[in-house]
Amino acid sequence: QRMGFASGYYSVPYRGLYFLAPFSVGMFFTCLSLVMVVTLYCVHRSFTVKRLMSFSTWTADDPSFFPKNADAPMSGVLWIFFNFFVFFGSCCFVFVLLFISMFDYIPFYVAGLLECIFMVLVGQLRWNWFQHARAAIWGTTVTSYVENDEELTSMTNPEYQRPEESDDEVGSTVTVSPSSLSFIILYTILVICFLVFTFSLTWFMSSACITLNPNSFSTLGIRRLLNDDPCETDLWPCHVYVTFGNQMATEIIVHFHSGIKYEQPVIWITSSKNYSGNETISAHEIETWQQHKAGVYRMSEISHLTERYVYYARAAGLTPQETYYFVVGDEGYHKTYSKVKKVRTGPDDDTEFSFAIGGDVGLTANVQTMLKTLSMLEPLFFGIGGNIAFASGIPGCYRRWDAVLDWLEEGLVTPTGHTIPIITAIGNNEAGSCCCLHE
Which residues of 321-332 are buried (b: 16+ CB within 10 A; e: fewer)? Predict the structure, then answer.
């Protein structure tokens, strides 16, 4: 607040630091290198034109704007600086493309294709790849400029005059005929290697996740190597948690996630009077429970990363201050049924009850200790006032939510086995205050 932040540590002034700062720096040096490359090339062409004009190889009636040998290779200091800025600018531009794809502003395959095209163009600029490829494929020849002794003599001796009987032109060309088969193979391998490298790199670094509390960084490639997404492999729900409805005495809302789409997602619920007490329940026994159809929505914002479906079902008309048991799953497919969980409803009168409230949860070691202490007090519900997973609205951080939901599901269980409902609010670190400018 003393530094003028709108609210908390990471608000409006800090919002673009993760993305804008590296992106701006990369674009600045890319543009600077481009300006230097163009400037050095123009200086080189200017020097070359002056040198060749002194040999009377260019006349006013020459149809070309530059003399035919104006593309002589650079040398000396110009050559060193030109190569440096070409290489440095290329690295900066590739970094910018890679960074943009990391935050899913463009697909990784688009960034990989642009990087490959760019590197091929750089190769053309430096080594005339296209001309050599054309020579190898179609059997034509490539001419390369060669400085002869006469030009070197004229540069050191301004009074030197070229002999009239000489048929050689200053800055004459020699024919380079690469081996067609070998060059085609090498050129093809080089392009394929560029494609494989750029696509692999952009895929591995795409969908980056930068989080706080604690600070962490991951990419799509890292998460694939870890392969720790339970929703991708399990048939049964990977997360099951409870919130209250409008009336905590008579309504609960059960939420559950899965990696496959359930055709008939439902919850079964019953009071303690109709439950045998087994952690798992048979399909015959569950038919006697009250059934509620669940709504579903597909998390399209992470569909390019994984398949995820979130289900929710409201159970109303419950008895106040009563323990209820519930199971979720896909009706008719017993392998998707979750374990039996239980929850208490609140009072509908002046009966006193306790609850817990906090915020800035995250994934630090203190959170697990806090959840254990909280559960021992058997609160009716746990209110979280924002900043739950610190995922910053980044699609690539969906696994951060998985980890937090796992902790809440495991930790918010009372000594008597009751699941503690959660009531949450959205914080600035859910809304994308750190880097997701498109949000």
Answer: eebbbbbbbbbe
Round to whole Å and give the CA distance between 395 and 304.
9
| Residue 328 pLDDT exceeds 80 | yes
pLDDT: which is higher, 267 or 112: 267
Contact 89, 41 (CB under 8 A): no
pLDDT value at residue 75: 59
User: 């009636």: which residue's tokens?
Assistant: 61
pLDDT recorded at residue 174: 42
Q: Answer whether 239's CB lies under 8 Å from 152's CB.
A: no
pLDDT at 52 over 70: no
**Could you please report the per-residue DSSP string of 279-295?**
SS--HHHHTTSEEEE-E
Q: Distance between CA 267 and CA 328 in Å, rounded?
A: 4
The full DSSP string for 28-65 is: HHHHHHHHHHHHHHHHHHHHHHHHHHTTT---TT-SSS
Cα within 13 Å of Cα(379), Cβ side: 19
Half-sphere exposure of 278 (CA within 13 A, CB side): 8
Amino acid (one-letter) located at 238: C
What one-character-per-residue DSSP string does 148-207 give?
Answer: -HHHHHHHH-TT----TT--PPTT-EEEE---HHHHHHHHHHHHHHHHHHHHHHHHHHSS
Q: Which of 128-142, 187-201, 271-285, 331-345 has the highest mean pLDDT?
A: 331-345
Residue with tokens 């050599």: 132
| Residue entry with tokens 């559960």 | 375
Output the DSSP codes for 325-382: EEEEEETT-GGGPPPPEEEE---SSS-----EEE---TT-HHHHHHHHHHHHT--S-E
Report pLDDT digits (tens) over 189-225: 877 887 888 888 888 988 888 887 888 888 888 888 8
Q: Is the pLDDT of residue 53 over 60?
A: no
Confidence of residue 396 (pLDDT cuts 50, 70, 90): confident
On whether the CB atoms of residues 409 and 241 are closer than 8 A, the answer is yes
Q: 213: which strand partners?
A: none
Among the listed residues 420, 244, 250, the one whose alpha carbon sits nearest the alpha carbon of residue 348: 250
| For range 134-149, the mean pLDDT | 50
